[in-house]
Amino acid sequence: MSEDTADAPVDDRLETAVAAAELGGRVALDSFRSDLAVEAKAGGPMDAVTAVDRAVQERVFEHVDGEYPDDAVVGEEDDALKSVPDRGVAWVVDPIDGTNNYVAGNRVWMTSVAVCRDGEPVAAANYAPATGDLYVAGGGRTRRNDDPAAVSEETDPESFLVNPIFGVSRAHRRELSAVVDTVLATFGDLRRFGCAQAALSGVATGELEATVSTVELNDWDTAAGVHLLRRAGGTATDVHGDRWRPGSEGLIASNGEAHDALVGAFEPVG
Fold it and tell me: Which pLDDT belongs to residue 269?
């Protein structure tokens, strides 16, 4: 079951989104597996940031501003906007999604660029420089490295691979613990990539059947990946089963084959 329709708007900014993701990703790749000065943000020692994160965001912003100087830009680092406006066009940038992986030399990290119009993602580029994979979608079909992508056709929830997406705070970890128990008791198996955009891209390409979060996630962790999976035939809702938008309560993103079962398993009680 696909949530999107064939007449979804084509975003004229897709080419710029792809170029910006690739430019930023190459900046990050230049310092990958090198000595890095790592800072801890407000979330504690697992909430890491490096000078490379900031340099990548600056390079992406610079490219976007050169093409569309009047557009709003949302980004994880420094003083950029932190949420997608309800009206107008906004770019949503995660310079390195999966910074802890990046710092450790793990190849699962991405530079993510999405375009939102009136609060809805309409174009996306997720670039994984360490593996060479580029995930792209505008108004047409999602593509990985120029090949069409599609969600898994698995229909049996007991065979679903589910990736929980949570932050590093104590509150998020408590929620994660409950979700892990539910996944292992009700669904097939669990994966934890440590990179939200990689998980969402994985649903879009059939590597996973679902990703789940019961907490509000940052727009830069979600917007691009949600658009990719929708354009690959998947479904993305909040924890109550309503259409997901930036700022929604939680995220349940799946291949659409047993989405109601996922919502039923994770929707808050009361």
Answer: 58
Question: Given 3.30.540.10, 3.40.1280.10, 3.40.640.10, 3.30.450.40, which CATH number is that of 14-148?
Answer: 3.30.540.10
Give pLDDT, residue 12: 79
pTM exceeds 0.70 for this model: yes
Burial of 19 (0-12, 13-18, 19+ CB in 10 A): middle
Q: What is the CATH number of domain 157-266?
A: 3.40.190.80
